[in-house]
Design a protein that fits this description.
With 672 residues, the protein is α+β, with helices and mostly antiparallel strands. Helix content is 51%, strand content 13%. The protein folds into 4 domains: 86 residues, DNA Primase, Chain A (Alpha-Beta Complex); 118 residues, DNA primase DNAg catalytic core, N-terminal domain; 198 residues, Dna Topoisomerase Vi A Subunit, Chain: A, domain 2 (3-Layer(aba) Sandwich); 181 residues, Orthogonal Bundle (DNAb Helicase, Chain A), CATH 1.10.860. The strands form 5 sheets. A 6-stranded mixed β-sheet has the order 12-14-13-15-18-19, with helices on both faces. α20 packs antiparallel against α25. The longest helix is centred in the C-terminal third of the chain and has 36 residues.
């Protein structure tokens, strides 16, 4: 149970709202004048069994105790949570959360100051002359030094430490930031970087999160990176992404190199879509980050064969984490099935013998551009790697080569491409094409079964009703009658997800759909998704923040988005992300249709419940001789029925209006 759920459970909503407007019991509900607008006939209803309220008059708004206080007292979510928590005695435990956020902020600050210190040493300190000479030999000019913030760490045990202590930072923070290390035997501290060219490592927002240091002699290690910190995680970092992201989007392609200097040289010569991974192996986290910008990846590899094979093997494993698409495929019987394909294009650009990317960029920029433009598809390059490893004149060699290559062929999106590589493999290993086709199809089917089994092994997510645990989109929750006794609230061992959770989770998976959904609503002649469509206050706040984030110029980044939320929403965000992560991968149109239908179901469900309540209120007013009140509730009820009818018609028109699918009586033509 989240802290906001605990607060809502403890607050007596009838007693609380009665402080603002007198309420009169009507059946199992309470009625009064709306506290948000002037009226003579009560239209404001409180539903204690669900902990909600709604104005059926001029306002037409509703919500829970949080939305009531936020609207009435003009408070934000955090202020409202603090106010209500104090009233009902719930401990928010904010100190540890605030301390963690404060620690991250301080590490950003001390890293930035350290970067400026290193930069000044490189520019002016006599001991940095060897670093300046090194950069001159590498052809790095002053503008590039400033753009990348290059610096120099003096050959001193304490120069940076002493400087930062003078600026008011403490030893614990410097150690947490990875700027100093501790010698427990001597009970002393010392600078982590000494006598090195310093390369600040920044996140996508250009905030310094760590450093790379390169020696200027033959000592080892050649490169030294910041140790793991609350900000710096080597497996997630992509060097140069802050400067490359715009160019990657423009070029619709990212070039991945191994070293810092490769990136710096490429950017200086105008190739701004170049980034580097932190080490020799690409990680799944790095590839997933880059896939937010493009689906075309070019790996620029040194000519060293052993290094190429290691990198390719790492990529062959990491590519499993890349996003996939579902593509309609004809079966032998003439039916259609959806198969998953790798939603990315991988290419390899091998450097000439004896040269690394830095050398090629500096010595022959035209050659670099040619190598990138003519990069081999990953499958072609992998063919060459496998050919160099196995003797296909033997049965064992043939079997191993086929086992290595068929999974890659199975993931290709285009059947013509698949046929091309099956022909090539057939000629190479002297195995007939039919046998290889069968193997590719078997691999594809096995992979699909594995995905489905993985989904089945995941914990069942309850979604509104027993049936909807398996088919969330088909559940039809029935409204509780106004006079019905509410079911007791019981603590569940795992979260329960409903339609609005499903909708918000999908929007978090694909934030661009927030904009698309607004356009789809316009075509269907319905209102776009509103915060008021959501009943859970945490979902409301997350969606409100998501809309603001999408409307900004920021590229989507879940960590950055989380930082924009109050810490008390982080748990709810994690639940929604976990739920979204277990959803099956869908084609774009499938996902879009899902979110539109879910929005309509949310509104139909609400209208159905409210119609039952309105019918009761209309009858109750009539029985009490309040003819005017009965007519008023009847008018509101009729408006709800008209809205309900319009939404039902919109449901039937989704496929035709949004995806150009013909209705059943017009044939089964489907356009994907």
């Amino acid at each position: 149970m989240s802290v906001s759920d605990e607060v809502k459970q403890r607050v007596d909503i009838v007693e609380f709202i009665s402080r603002y407007t007198p309420l009169k019991r009507t059946g199992s509900t309470y009625k009064g004048l709306c506290p948000f607008h002037s009226e003579r006939t009560p239209s404001f209803i409180v539903f204690p069994h669900s902990g909600t309220w709604r104005c059926f008059g001029a306002c037409g708004i509703g919500g829970d105790i949080f939305s009531f206080v936020m609207r009435k007292e003009n408070l934000d979510f955090r202020e409202t949570l603090q106010m209500l928590a104090r009233e009902v005695g719930v401990n928010l435990q904010e100190e540890s959360q605030d301390a963690s956020a404060s620690q991250r902020t301080q590490i950003y600050e001390v890293n930035e100051l350290a970067a400026k210190y290193y930069f000044e040493q490189l520019q002016h300190h006599p001991a940095a002359q060897k670093a300046r000479d090194y950069l001159q030999r590498r052809g790095i000019d002053q503008a590039t030094c400033e753009r990348f913030g290059l610096g120099f760490a003096l050959d001193s045990w304490s120069s940076l430490r002493d400087y930062l202590l003078e600026k008011g930072f403490n030893l614990d923070l410097l150690q947490q930031a990875g700027l100093i290390k501790r010698n427990d035997e001597r009970n002393s501290t010392f600078d982590a970087f000494r006598a090195r060219l310093m390369i600040p490592i920044r996140d996508r927002q250009s905030r310094t999160i760590g450093f790379g240091g390169r020696v200027l002699d033959d000592s080892q290690p050649k490169y030294l990176n910041t140790s793991e910190t609350p900000l710096f995680h080597k497996s997630r970092v992509i060097y140069g992404l802050d400067l490359a992201q715009a160019a990657i989007r423009e070029a619709k392609k990212v070039v991945i190199v191994e070293g810092y200097m490769d990136v710096i040289a490429a950017h200086q010569h105008g190739f701004a879509n170049v980034v580097a991974c932190m080490g020799t192996a690409l990680t799944t986290e790095q590839l997933q980050q880059l896939q937010r910008f493009t689906n075309d990846f070019v790996l620029a590899l040194d000519a060293d064969a052993a290094g190429q094979q290691a990198t390719i093997r790492g990529l062959n494993q990491a590519r499993q984490a890349l996003g996939r698409i579902r593509k309609p495929t004809l079966t032998a019987a003439g039916g259609v099935r959806l198969e998953e394909r790798l939603g990315a294009n991988l290419f390899i650009a091998a450097m000439p013998e004896g040269l690394d990317p830095d050398d090629v960029v500096r010595q022959n920029p035209a050659l670099w551009q040619k190598l990138i433009n003519q990069a081999l598809p990953f499958v072609d390059f992998y063919f060459d790697i496998v050919a160099a490893q196995y003797d296909v004149t033997t049965a064992q060699g043939k079997g191993t080569a086929v086992t290595e290559l068929t999974p890659l062929i199975a993931e290709l999106q285009d059947e013509v491409e698949q046929k091309h590589y099956i022909d090539r493999l057939s000629r190479w290993v002297h195995v007939d094409e039919r046998t290889l086709w069968d193997r590719v199809q078997a691999v594809s089917k096995t992979g699909q079964i594995a995905v489905e089994q993985q989904h089945r092994r995941r914990p069942m997510v309850r979604f509104g009703s027993p049936r909807s645990a398996n088919e969330p989109g088909e559940a039809r929750p029935q409204p509780d009658p106004v006079g019905a006794r509410p079911a007791p609230r019981t603590a569940l061992p795992s979260p329960t997800f409903d339609y609005e959770d499903h909708l918000v989770a999908n929007l978090l998976r694909e934030p661009d759909l927030v904009v698309w959904l607004a356009g789809a609503a316009d075509k269907l002649e319905i209102l776009p998704l509103q915060v008021a469509d959501l009943q859970n206050v945490e979902n409301q706040e997350i969606f409100r923040a998501l809309k603001q984030f999408v409307s900004s110029d920021e590229q989507w980044d879940i960590e950055l988005f989380q930082e924009a939320l109050t810490p008390h929403l982080h748990g709810r965000l994690a639940q929604l992300l976990a739920y979204g992560a277990q959803m099956p991968v869908k084609a774009d149109n499938e996902l879009r249709e899902d979110i539109v239908r879910t929005l309509l179901r949310i509104r139909l469900q609400r209208l159905s419940a409210e119609s039952a309540n309105l019918k009761f209120l209309e009858a109750d007013a009539f029985n009490q001789g309040d003819v005017e009140g009965s007519k008023q509730w009847g008018d509101v009820h009729n408006r709800h029925l008209r809205d309900f009818d319009h939404l039902q018609k919109s449901q039937k028109r989704i496929s035709q209006l949004l995806f150009r699918r013909r209705l059943p009586e017009q044939g089964m033509h489907i356009k994907y």
